[in-house]
Design brief:
It is built from eleven helices and 18 strands. By secondary structure, the protein is an alpha/beta fold. Strand 12, helix 6 and strand 13 form a beta-alpha-beta unit. Helix 4 packs across helix 5 and helix 4 crosses helix 10. The strands form four sheets. Strands 3, 5, 6, 9, 10, 17 and 18 form a seven-stranded mixed beta sheet that branches. A six-stranded parallel beta sheet has the order 13-12-11-14-15-16, with helices on both faces. A three-stranded antiparallel beta sheet has the order 2-1-4, with no helix packed on it. The protein has two domains: 159 residues, Medium-chain alcohol dehydrogenases, catalytic domain (Quinone Oxidoreductase, Chain A, domain 1, Alpha-Beta Complex); 139 residues, NAD(P)-binding Rossmann-like Domain (Rossmann fold). The protein binds zinc ion (2 copies). One zinc ion binds next to helix 2. The site of one zinc ion has 9 residues, from helix 2.
Length: 332
């Protein structure tokens, strides 16, 4: 089968390898499709540390169980599934304090840039019939939005600014509207992405380079600023800008992943006297079952703007790198 293996920084190779045999407690998944995540580029470039190379990348995928290993009991051949490619240890302090997504000993399995993948059944989640394959492939990125909205404690009627209208930004907008937030205001320089943000339910989409963003947001929120800023661009400029958009007593949640060595500056005086809350929100958390329930209601698959065969993964990564479209799907 065809798979794309990362051997080291910048060393992603197309390889012909045997279909893996599922070991004890594992299942073999025939992949229906895998979406490109910005984190894949960061991993390839060495900007996001990952253990266990060589590794097949791709963590946003879904498929059908083709074979089960000895002792696999929860899943059967023919069932549709999506997966967490990282398995937690269940024993470390983080796992035992109910935060398994922060597991200190997380093991990352091969991913979805292949025709098949074998992994432990505890990494798999059943996909019900009303969920399409493309929706199921969105489980991981959409769970990132669920995790971040949970962290922000967004209440119905809360005003929210989403800074950055990429895939996660758009998924946040769709989820926020579903959760009853409003107004939902998106800040995004690209006209194409702003119009998509409006399609996803944003009340207002602003170009931060063409307006006084903080002023416009205050005008939309009784002069106060928003209850919650969800920062999904992950740049220092947008993180620093978020402090000017939030109201007293509000919260800023950083979802976009900044470069590891970057530093931002803000006024701790304003944080204290404004009684602000700053959150970091990493990854999909432990929200797959609830996210899968939400998929057909929120239709996150609307983020897919490009679909390419798996053999064209390098071209697909190139689209992502050049910020063309929103989300790219590769299909074996
Ligand atoms: Zn991702
Ligand atoms: Zn652990």
């Amino acid at each position: 089968m065809l798979c794309f293996v990362l051997h080291g920084i910048g060393d992603l190779r197309a390889e012909e390898c045997p279909v893996p045999a599922p070991g004890p407690g594992e299942a073999l998944v025939k992949i229906a499709g895998c979406a490109i995540c910005h984190t894949d580029l960061a991993v390839i470039d060495g900007d996001f540390p990952i253990r266990g190379l060589p590794l097949v990348l791709g963590h946003e995928y879904a498929g059908t169980i083709a074979e089960v290993g000895p002792g696999t009991t929860a899943f059967a051949v023919g069932e549709r599934v999506t997966a967490h490619s990282g398995a937690t240890c269940g024993l470390c302090e983080m796992c035992r304090h109910g935060m398994p997504w922060l597991c200190l000993n997380k093991r990352v399995y091969n991913g979805g840039y292949a025709e098949y993948v074998a992994l432990p059944e505890r990494c798999l989640y059943r996909v019900p019939p009303e969920v399409t394959d493309e929706q199921a492939i969105c489980t991981n990125p959409f769970a990132i939005a669920v995790h971040a909205v949970d962290a922000s404690r967004v209440q119905p009627g809360a005003s929210v600014a989403v800074v950055g209208g990429g895939a996660i930004g758009l998924l946040l907008v769709a989820l926020l509207r579903f959760a009853g937030a409003g107004p939902v205001i998106v800040s995004e320089p690209s006209a194409e992405r702003r119009s998509m943000a409006l399609e996803f339910g944003a009340h207002v989409a602003l170009d931060p380079f063409a307006c006084d963003l903080a002023g416009e947001i205050r005008a939309l929120t009784n002069g106060l600023g928003v209850h919650v800023v969800l920062e999904s661009a992950g740049t220092i400029g947008t993180i620093e800008q978020s402090f000017g958009l939030v109201r007293r007593g509000g919260a800023i949640t950083i979802v976009g992943v900044p470069a590891p060595q970057s530093k931002a500056s803000f006024s701790p005086f304003d944080v204290v006297t404004g009684n602000l809350t700053i959150h970091g929100s990493i990854g999909p958390g432990w929200n797959y079952p609830r996210t899968i329930e939400l998929l057909p209601k929120v239709r996150p698959e609307r983020v897919f703007t490009h679909r390419l065969p798996l053999s064209q993964l390098p071209e697909a990564l190139g689209l992502r790198r050049r910020n063309i479209g929103i989300k790219v799907l590769v299909v074996p």
